[in-house]
Amino acid sequence: MTKRTSTQAEPFLQCAGCKKILFAMEFEQNLRVCPHCGHHHRLPARQRIAMTFDEGSFEELDADLRSGNPLGFPDYQDKLEAAEARTGFFDSVVSGRAKLFDAPVSAAVADFAFMGGSMGSAAGEKIARTLERAAEEHIPAIVFCASGGARMQEGLLSLMQMAKTTAAAQRCAQSGCPYFAVFTDPTMAGVLASYASVADVILAEPKALVGFAGARVAKQAGVGKVPDDFQTAEYAHAHGMIDKIVHRKEMRQTLGTLVKLMTTGRRATVGSRRG
Amino acid sequence: MAKTWREWERPLIELEEGLVKLKAMAREAESPRREELETNIAQFERRRDNYIDVMYSRLGPWEKVLVARADKRPYTLDYVAAIFTNFVELEGDRRFGADHAIVGGPALLDEMPCMVIGHQKGRNIQERQYRNFGMARPEGYRKAIRLMEMADRFGLPVVTFIDTPAADPGVESESRGISEAIAAAMFKMFELTVPTVAVVVGEGGSGGAIGIAAANAVLMQEHAIYSVIPPEGCAAILWRTPDKGPQAATALKLTAQHALEYGLVDEIVPEPRGGAHRDPAEAAGLVKEAVLRRLCEMRKLSGEKLREARYQKFRAMGRFELASRRPATSD
């Protein structure tokens, strides 16, 4: 993570990859990719939406879904409120409709700044609705993942979001609509082991952390020495778990091309909303 | 606080061992010593039963964790042997290798052919290693997918037994896509047009559990646990020490009673007095009754109805609220 997220406050910041000092303005113009080492820094959901979809096309839906601390888990309420204040969202996933090179899509973007992008009931619901919307309206689904995994403060309810979102992905697949997932830093555990991994096409940003067991969990389970590039997008790509690693600058174009290629084949109706 | 089931049950285990000795002595002894011993035995048995009732009537979440992990507790293959007949284990994933932490194959439940799949733990060091401590690798889930596909094709209901600490977190499993394997297994379960029943019989350990638990009916034994993360792992993340597992177990609400309360399982299957490990045969009988009843209920439903019901059931899981205002941002 970069030390600062507000560009107004500080004219300089340090790259999380090469530790070089960067000009904030240049850094932002470069889509938060380090001009020296190419490190892709994490992005707030709003910025991701702005740089990916057609200008002004994003229509946010279900913005008012929030967790109510169903288990009465210690300190959870405080964490939620702090995350709300930090991000301006009620949960880690921002979802809605958007256009990509004029093609309507159902989209969801996760924001790591909201409790590590973790998936509780609200995030799971938004992902499920995003995939269902794609199926119902016959439009492609695009989901940007950024998550440490399930949100343990919601206990078994959060584990069940894995099943719920995967069920919705199955429904999307059954409807014949393509589903594109983009793994950004990090895409881990309960999110990777559910809706993220059942997408038709999986893209990833360079060096994104992608893996099943987080470092602390793995350590407890006695996992020993690991390869240097273990749990990176490059590692997952080399092992066939990711289709393509795409630079942030090329993500919009790549997704646009894929959407076009995969919605103009047999199903000529895809891309036009029903009713 | 006790860290293992043996430690927690020690007084009870000692009583039971004493009883075994007393009974042996009584068999050898002659009158009137024999009558004396028998009176003693009866007293001890009453004490033991009282002890069990006291201990098991107020099991806290952490005690449930210990009991669910007890190595005397019946495992999947014990249930398969007690509930089914003609089980033929099918071991290949047709991709990479044989996994021994998930077992499965067709079997008869009374007259009904079923596909049985479940996590398998081991009891001694060799067995534990062979079963990888019940932590399935990608091949286990891919084998499960294969078996479920066949079940769907041949119209066999699927019965899964859930008992795993977690899916295997090692380097090898990561390299072969453990996450994808779990996700794909769940995905497959949502495609099935046959009735599916999952029974959580021990540890329902996070992704490793839900991978084969997305069933029409999800049952949970009285003292089983089901959790998004092991309590020790939760404590390690939140409080930087695995020693606070008992506190985490309470906070996670990982008991069957909680899962039912939150609508995440359909039914609690009672266990014999003092837990499934005290009377595995009775425990299996209770599981069998519940599974049979659920399958019979579903037999009338069409494939499409089953799939839709399964979808709606999981689709409804979660607790959230609607906010009345946008959150205030700090910047």
TrEMBL record, chain A:
Keywords from the named record: ATP-binding, Cytoplasm, Fatty acid biosynthesis, Fatty acid metabolism, Ligase, Lipid biosynthesis, Lipid metabolism, Metal-binding, Nucleotide-binding, Transferase, Zinc, Zinc-finger
Signal peptide feature range: none
Cofactor remark: Binds 1 zinc ion per subunit.
Pathway involvement of the protein, from the record: Lipid metabolism; malonyl-CoA biosynthesis; malonyl-CoA from acetyl-CoA: step 1/1
Reactions catalysed, as given in the entry: N(6)-carboxybiotinyl-L-lysyl-[protein] + acetyl-CoA = N(6)-biotinyl-L-lysyl-[protein] + malonyl-CoA
Biological process (GO), any one: malonyl-CoA biosynthetic process
Subunit structure: Acetyl-CoA carboxylase is a heterohexamer composed of biotin carboxyl carrier protein (AccB), biotin carboxylase (AccC) and two subunits each of ACCase subunit alpha (AccA) and ACCase subunit beta (AccD).
Stated name of the protein: Acetyl-coenzyme A carboxylase carboxyl transferase subunit beta
Species: Fimbriimonas ginsengisoli
TrEMBL record, chain B:
A GO biological process held by the record: malonyl-CoA biosynthetic process
InterPro entries: Acetyl_CoA_COase_a_su, ClpP/crotonase-like_dom_sf, COA_CT_C
A Gene Ontology cellular-component term: acetyl-CoA carboxylase complex
Keywords annotated in UniProt: ATP-binding, Cytoplasm, Fatty acid biosynthesis, Fatty acid metabolism, Ligase, Lipid biosynthesis, Lipid metabolism, Nucleotide-binding, Transferase
Catalytic activity entry: N(6)-carboxybiotinyl-L-lysyl-[protein] + acetyl-CoA = N(6)-biotinyl-L-lysyl-[protein] + malonyl-CoA
EC number of the protein: 2.1.3.15
Protein localization: Cytoplasm
Family of this protein: Belongs to the AccA family.
Record function comment: Component of the acetyl coenzyme A carboxylase (ACC) complex. First, biotin carboxylase catalyzes the carboxylation of biotin on its carrier protein (BCCP) and then the CO(2) group is transferred by the carboxyltransferase to acetyl-CoA to form malonyl-CoA.
Subunit structure: Acetyl-CoA carboxylase is a heterohexamer composed of biotin carboxyl carrier protein (AccB), biotin carboxylase (AccC) and two subunits each of ACCase subunit alpha (AccA) and ACCase subunit beta (AccD).
The protein's name: Acetyl-coenzyme A carboxylase carboxyl transferase subunit alpha
Organism: Fimbriimonas ginsengisoli
